[in-house]
Amino acid sequence: MPFLSFLPAPIRRNLAILLGSSLLFWCSLSSLLPIIPLYAESLGGTPQQIGWITGAFAVGLITARPWLGQLADQRSRKLVLLIGMGVAAIAPLGYLLAPSPNWLMLFRALHGISISAFATAYLTLVADFSPVQYRGTILGYMTLGNPLGTAIGPAIGGLLLAHSSFAFVFMMAAGFGLAGFLSSSQVEPPPLPAISEADRGKPFWYSFDRAGLAIPTLAMLLVGMAFGVLHTFIALFIKSLEIDLNPGIFYTAAAMGSFCVRILVGRIADRWGRGLFFTLSLSCYTLSMLLLSLAQNSFHFLLGGLVEGMSMGILIPIVSALIADRSYPQERGRLFGFCITGLDLGIAFAGPIFGFLGAWLSYRQMFSIATVLPGLAIVLFMTQGGKNLLNSLQFAIGWGKDAYALPDQE
Questions:
Q1: What's the average pLDDT block by block, 10 residues per block, for the chain (410 residues)?
Q2: What is the C-alpha separation between 333 and 83, in angstroms, rounded?
Q3: Residue 1 lies in a domain
Q4: At what angle do helices 363-384 and 214-240 cross, to 10 degrees?
């Protein structure tokens, strides 16, 4: 990994292992993205039930995040990492046992624990290994496993389904998860920072409020709702228009957009600030949902996917760096977990809400409504993201510093 040559060899080794594990994890998870809605439909699922199945995945995420973040801070980041990979290896096999959409919903909820554990531990470990002055750069590179995995996984999943069966795709996803578990077991994490009795006794909300994470979390929730609409209904939307496009290729386009921007965004954000790129990511997501709501052919869908991927490619590294800038190591796991829970909640709400509305709305109308959500997040961040209106606006357009960043993190 020559781009990390400025780091000591043991840290480079651990980051290389983590990046490989991340690639395997996201290959496992994303290979099922275009498959689950179709599998649920094959079991007799209605659009409303498919929405609940997607929301069930986020329920597993949400319920597990609080205690997994605490476990990562107080016990072991590596243990939480292995929990995530272990669930990713086991859960796909459960889908083979699902006789109905209701059972599929249960296994989907269990599968949600995998992201909750893996993402929290992974981002926290990368932040632990990263010098402050290179944090955005390293997080930008180290989150490349997500777009690479989501480029490979859905395309393979869609291709295998076209030439084999659902069972074969599920077994492949389990194989990726097992390989990632074995890889993750080789990570040697740094020692956990000591937690004083005074800090241990402070409520979580003290750290959350001090770090000013309410608005970023709310913005993540709004983006998560749009994200949930997209990933629940995009395959069905394409199918309803009778467009000859493998949904897996849509996810590949999104992954390509995400990959391209992550290479540069962290390095630039280390110099220009997090706020400008947070605003840019929300703007890109609004544009992507608008493009999809107007889509008429394969090119339109692929363009919308490309822009959506660019948005997430900016958002995840920037939010991760923002949280790290505002947190002490001994609270980082919980703050990472809680802020990203905003995204989880959005996904959880989107499936059931829009699945219910699907009885009256077309897929195109759903995407039109979803366009408003990240637009609202832009307004909130630009007016409420700092300690006052002026600071919020300056930070959001890159003209001011982060008022909540810790002194030794700037």
A1: 68 92 94 84 79 77 81 87 95 87 87 90 89 79 83 83 85 94 93 63 60 84 91 85 82 84 74 85 95 92 93 88 81 78 78 79 90 94 88 87 71
A2: 15
A3: no
A4: 160
How far apart are the C-alpha atoms of 221 and 373, rounded to whole Å?
A: 9
For residue 361, give the 3-state DSSP assignment: coil
Report residue 236 as tokens: 């069905």
Could you count the other beta carbons within 10 Å of the beta carbon of residue 35? 25
CATH number at residue 335: 1.20.1250.20
Structure tokens at 176: 């990726």
Between CA 239 and CA 50 the distance in angstroms is 15
pLDDT of 1: 46
Kindly list the distances between the CA atom of residue 36 and the CA atoms of 24, 206, 234, 406, in Å, as whole numbers in the listed order: 19, 39, 12, 42
Asked if 288 contacts 229 with a C-beta cutoff of 8 angstroms, the reply is no
Q: Which amino acid is at 240?
A: S
183 lies in a domain?
Answer: yes
CA distances from 20 to 29, 155, 184, 240, 287 (A): 14, 19, 9, 37, 32
Residue with tokens 């493009």: 291
Which pLDDT does position 179 carry in this prediction?
96
Nearest residue to 114 (alpha-carbon basis) of 14, 52, 172, 27: 27
The CA-atom distances, in angstroms, between 306 and each of 147, 152, 259, 377 are: 11, 15, 10, 21
Tokens 């954000």 sit on residue? 269
Q: What is the pTM of this model?
A: 0.76
| Structural domain of 108 | 9-187+205-409
Query: Is residue 59 in a domain?
Result: yes
Residue 236 forms part of a structural domain = yes
d(CA 301, CA 200): 49
C-alpha 162, offset from chain centre: 27
SS3 388: coil
Number of domains making up the chain: 1
